[in-house]
Specification:
2 strands; 3 helices; 255 residues; mainly alpha
């Protein structure tokens, strides 16, 4: 028989007792009450054992919850590290590719500029040589030596100016090509870094969400365990209080 039923039985005995004249006391069957109290005492160890079992289960639940939380946080940290490592690897790979691409573009621009300058030098050299040959021919084939020399000098000067202008234009074109290559390389590198930063931010955000979910899971388990323990202890305390309340009202008649 449960403690609740035994307490109900004691209350029934008290209510069935006869009132003592000129008093608020009630005469009851002492033997029946003693037997009910004895039965309650016999049942209390079982209730206490059940309470201890609940407490032990609570501790097991807490340990299990802590272990699961640690495992969840560890898993989240490992996944976060893996995501960050992957993002960093992709960043390094992208930066290496970008640097290689940029270096290749710059080298191509420098080679192209070098070829343009060399071609301009060759053209200028050919123009000077042609001018010199024509000037020498004019000097050798004319009777007016002074006019021939003046014309030759003018022709050579014009040829040198044209060669200089051609060389300056080639240099300007080469600088433009190199600047364009450097700007393209810088834009490519910045875009690679931006993509890498976004990947790392997403990995850190996902890791934080996993940590918050693990903490909420632990709080929910602990709250459930505490509620179960509080309910069991409240039942036991209620039973004890009922026993004290009933025994305080009992007044056995004198024989």
């Amino acid at each position: 028989m449960s403690i609740e039923l035994l307490l109900d039985q004691i209350e029934d005995i008290v209510e069935a007792g006869s009132k003592v004249p000129f008093s608020s006391k009630v005469g009851v069957d002492a033997e029946a009450i003693k037997k009910a109290i004895e039965d309650i005492r016999l049942n209390l160890p079982g209730e206490l054992a059940q309470a201890r079992t609940i407490i032990a289960d609570r501790n097991n639940i807490l340990v299990k919850a802590k272990n699961e939380a640690v495992a969840a946080v560890t898993s989240a940290q490992e996944k976060s590290r893996a995501l960050i490592s992957t993002a960093e690897d992709k960043v390094r790979e992208l930066v290496l590719k970008t640097e290689g691409y940029s270096k290749g573009k710059v080298e191509d621009a420098e080679n192209q500029a070098r070829r343009i300058v060399e071609a301009a030098n060759e053209d200028a050299k050919a123009i000077r040589q042609s001018a010199q040959v024509e000037a020498n021919a004019m000097v050798e084939n004319t009777e007016i030596v002074i006019q021939s020399k003046a014309a030759a000098e003018t022709y050579i000067k014009n040829a040198q100016e044209e060669a200089h202008a051609t060389l300056e234009g080639a240099k300007a074109q080469a600088e433009n090509i190199i600047n364009a290559a450097n700007e393209q390389a810088q834009r490519t590198t910045e875009e690679a870094r931006r993509c890498a930063d976004e990947a790392i931010d997403k990995a850190n955000k996902w890791s934080a969400e996993i940590r918050v979910a693990a903490g909420d899971f632990i709080e929910e388990i602990m709250a459930t365990a505490n509620n179960a323990i509080a309910s069991s202890l409240a039942e036991i305390q209620g039973a004890r209080a009922s026993i004290k309340s009933v025994t305080g009202k009992i007044d056995t008649p004198e024989e």
